[in-house]
Write a structure and sequence with these properties.
Elements (H helix, E strand, L loop, with lengths): L4 E6 L4 E7 L8 H16 L5 E6 L10 H10 L9 H10 L5 E5 L2 E3 L1 H8 L2 E4 L4 E3 L13 H9 L1 H9 L4 E2 H7 L4 E2 L5 H13 L18 H18 L5 H15 L1 H15 L3 H15 L18 E5 L3 H11 L4 E5 L3 H20 L5 H8 L2 E4 L10 E4 L5 H14 L5 E4 L6 H4 L9 E6 L8 E6 L5 H13 L3 E6 L6 H17 L4 H11 L5 H8 L1 H14 L9 H7 L12 E2 L7 E2 L4 H11 L12 H21 L6 H12 L8 H8 L1 H15 L7 H9 L11 H6 L1
Parallel strand pairs: 2-3, 3-4, 4-6, 5-7, 6-9, 10-11, 10-13, 11-12, 13-14, 14-15, 16-17
Antiparallel strand pairs: 1-2, 7-8, 15-16, 18-19
Helix pairs in contact: 4-5, 5-6, 6-9, 9-10, 10-11, 12-26, 13-14, 14-15, 19-25, 20-25, 25-28, 28-29
The protein binds nicotinamide-adenine-dinucleotide.
């Protein structure tokens, strides 16, 4: 591995080209800042250097500040390891340097990388270079002057959009906005940048210090007005996190009191933000997602993923059409099999609808959409399966049907072909029972809508080969999903851990707690939909089916009531027919429906579990805990059984599969911020009051009594050992 370094070459023209080199993205490690100071000092000192071109190695400018340093600050609590870059490098060395700097941008210039470029006196870029300040996604703000210089270069409006929404732009857009001075072909980048730097020194081009500019900022009343509106929007779009409001404070300070004041405030706010729970959670979520690709005995044994060029999908319903969409959008040929031409046509139309929907939402170019639609072919038999590399079965959840299909595809497909199922609940060993290809059988568990949701659970059995696991992980990456390898059990990782989510909501409802209060509190906590609204949207059929499956597997902790049956009997089918716990009308947000309350009363009377016949009295905090601690408890069982490789995989899966708020770091990270002991004691208390549903798991009890975090590696149980 090459160490991070900064190199300088001085040409006969008097231009020093300073290059940042730290593969793969030239992240700004601590030593890079030292290197920059050293090379700049030399360039300023040397009489043969007139100007500087600052660039990055191997086709990339820089991916930004080294995020490992954030993690170290979080672990040690020592903020002094953060380099002070904004004054000592961006202002003193680059912007106020006595010789001009031109930033030569290519590939990407993100975060701290772009901030260095903003401090330069001009920016030249190659086509399609990605430019952005995504720091807010890590719970902080730009910390090297970005909050001050970006508005001064491109105006406040656009700068807010880029920073608050962490939205990158291309160099072409940057050129139109005034962020980039010229876009040139890659082979001319350095030459054009050198010339630009010489033009500055010879006064043919202006020598611009961005921090001193005010021409694009607008008047103070205009600024105050724009910031006020942005504050309100940010309050709605980014609940429970401080960095958006803090970013607006810092920008306002700089515009009203001057750029240098803004820089000082930016630096101190940055140091406060890094210690917030939001930053700790977001940085953890970032590293957790990265870690998912490391799977012991799969990714570390020298295997190479095989090419998957053609995939057959069986079943063109909701999931099959979504999976097909994801594949064709990434140039993988799809054969879609259905039972008759009517269903086949429906499936193809659903794929077209998905693809055209992306075009109308401006997420896909029209020509790419048309090209993608040519990649799918419909069929009613197995003839076209003779040369497919993988089959993904997505038919209804029916064991004999899936078993028959697997026996058929074993015969119809070539011997290397991967045999995958999108089942959400059925044991894969059962599905593959009638074949002799256990090593090729795997679960490809997508989440609905499959072409949108980012998580792919790669479900391995004890016999699935490492090669097949690696191949499916690779396909997942190609189609822009995040593959998380999980073990084979009822509900796998996410659905299993979150099974108690709606169960505890129903239990609380029957103990007398108001349903709309529950939903509101959970949504305030940060999940997009409360448990009841989620059921309305998912459909009651799914609720009935999954409750039955979990009841069979975990009868000791499944809560049952007649409520969903009563809702269906009363003509309520959730979003499907516009009437559930909520009223769904086109064009407006779902509204709580008070006419559902008598049905709830009837269900409460039937099971009659309120202590003394009276509603229990609970605080808002207790409600959130009574919904989410049982999820943590089940997640502990998932860890204990070794269903996931590491605890942080469950964090990633909960964020990407259940939309658990990323700023809380994922379900296990969040639980550890509360403490195993508190969770254990609460569950113990509720289990005494309200029954077995809350009984703490063995893993939780052990962690709580021994004072060990839930996330600490365990893998001690026999089940866990067998899986890993
Ligand atoms: P669906 O009812 O929308 O579609 C199933 C399709 O399979 C139907 O179009 C049907 O005609 C077709 N089919 C049935 N037998 C077939 C055969 N022999 N050959 C070809 N096609 C056949 O069901 P869905 O919601 O897409 O679910 C499919 C699978 O995905 C199930 O195993 C389900 O558990 C799983 N899953 C569903 C979700 C979800 O949210 N719906 C999420 C994850 C996984």
């Amino acid at each position: 591995m090459r160490l991070p370094r900064v190199i300088m070459e001085v040409g006969d023209d008097g231009v020093a080209v300073i290059t940042v080199s730290n593969p793969p993205v030239n992240a700004l490690a601590l030593t890079i800042f030292d290197g920059l100071k050293e090379k700049y000092a030399e360039a300023m000192r040397r009489d043969d250097v007139k100007a500087v071109v600052l660039t990055g190695d191997a086709g990339k400018f820089s991916g930004g500040f080294d995020i490992n340093v954030f993690e170290r600050v979080h672990k040690t609590g020592d903020v002094s390891i953060l380099p002070e870059t904004s004054i000592s490098v961006a202002v003193n060395v680059i912007e106020d340097g006595k010789k001009p700097t031109v930033a030569a941008l290519q590939g990407l210039a993100l975060g701290g990388g772009l901030e260095l470029a903003l401090a330069a006196h001009a920016r030249i870029a190659t086509p399609k270079t990605l430019l952005g300040l995504p720091e807010l996604t890590l719970g902080v703000i730009p910390g090297s002057g970005g909050t001050q210089r970006l508005p001064r270069l491109i105006g406040l409006h656009k700068a807010l959009e880029l920073m608050l929404f962490s939205k990158p732009i291309t160099s072409e857009e940057g050129n139109g906005l005034g962020l980039v001075d010229a876009v040139v072909p890659s082979d001319e980048l350095i030459k054009a940048s050198r010339q630009w730097a010489l033009d500055i020194i010879e006064r043919r081009k202006p020598w611009i210090r961005s921090l001193h500019r005010i021409d694009k900022l607008g008047s103070v009343p205009e600024v105050v007005d724009i910031i006020k509106t942005a504050r309100q929007q940010a309050k709605q779009s980014f609940k429970n996190v401080p960095q958006h409001q803090a970013c607006l404070d810092v920008i306002e300070e700089g515009i009203i009191h001057g750029g240098y004041h803004g820089i000082l405030k930016e630096s101190s706010v940055f140091k406060d933000l890094i210690f917030t729970d939001a930053s700790k959670g977001l940085v953890h979520a970032f590293f957790s997602q990265r870690a998912t690709s490391k799977v012991p005995n799969v990714s570390d044994i020298g295997l190479k993923p095989r090419k998957i060029l053609k995939v057959a999908i069986i079943g063109g319903g909701l999931m099959g059409s979504g999976i097909a969409t994801a594949l064709i959008l990434s140039d993988i040929y799809v054969i879609l099999k259905e039972i008759n031409s009517e269903y086949l046509l429906k499936g193809i139309k659903a794929i077209e609808g998905n693809v055209r929907g992306l075009v109308s939402r401006k997420k896909l170019a029209k020509d790419k959409a048309e090209k993608a639609l040519l990649m799918v072919k419909g069929t009613l038999d197995y003839t076209d399966f003779k040369d497919v590399d993988m089959v993904i079965e997505a038919v209804v959840e029916h064991i004999p049907l899936k078993q028959k299909i697997f026996a058929d595809i074993e015969k119809a497909c070539p011997p290397h072909c991967i045999l995958a199922s999108n089942t959400s609940t059925i044991d894969l060993n059962v599905i593959g029972e009638k074949t002799k290809s256990q090593d090729r059988i795997i679960g490809a568990h997508f989440f609905s809508p499959a072409h949108v949701m980012p998580l792919l659970e790669v479900v391995r059995t004890e016999e699935t080969s490492a090669q097949v696991i690696l191949d499916l992980m690779n396909v997942g990456k190609i189609i822009k999903k995040v593959p998380v390898v999980v073990g084979n059990c009822t509900g796998f990782a996410v659905n299993r851990a979150f099974f108690p989510y709606s169960q505890s909501a129903h239990l609380l409802l029957h103990l007398g707690v108001d349903l709309f209060r529950i939903d509101q509190l959970i949504s305030n906590f940060g999940l997009p939909l409360g448990p009841f609204q989620l059921q309305d949207v998912a459909g009651y059929g799914v609720v009935v089916a999954t409750t039955e499956i979990f009841r069979t597997s975990f009868p000791d902790r499944t809560f049952q009531s007649p409520l969903v049956g009563l809702l269906l009997k009363n003509g309520r089918n959730g979003k499907n027919n516009g009437k559930g716990y909520y009223i769904f009308e086109k064009g407006s947000k779902p509204k709580p429906d008070p006419s559902v309350l008598p049905i709830i009363e009837e269900s409460r009377r039937t099971i009659n579990i309120m202590p003394g016949g009276k509603p229990i009295s609970v605080t808002d905090e207790e409600i959130i805990q009574m919904i989410l601690f049982p999820v943590v408890n089940e997640a502990c069982r998932v860890l204990d059984e070794g269903v996931v490789v590491r605890a942080s995989d469950l964090d990633t899966a909960s964020i990407l599969g259940m939309s658990f708020p990323s700023y809380r770091g994922g379900i296990i990270f969040w639980a550890d911020t509360i403490g195993a002991d508190i969770i254990y004691k609460s569950l113990q208390k509720w289990s005494e009051l309200y029954g077995n549903f809350f009984r703490p798991s063995r893993y939780l009890e052990e962690r709580a009594t021994r004072g060990i975090p839930l996330s600490a590696p365990a893998a001690t149980s026999p089940a866990a050992k067998a899986r890993l």
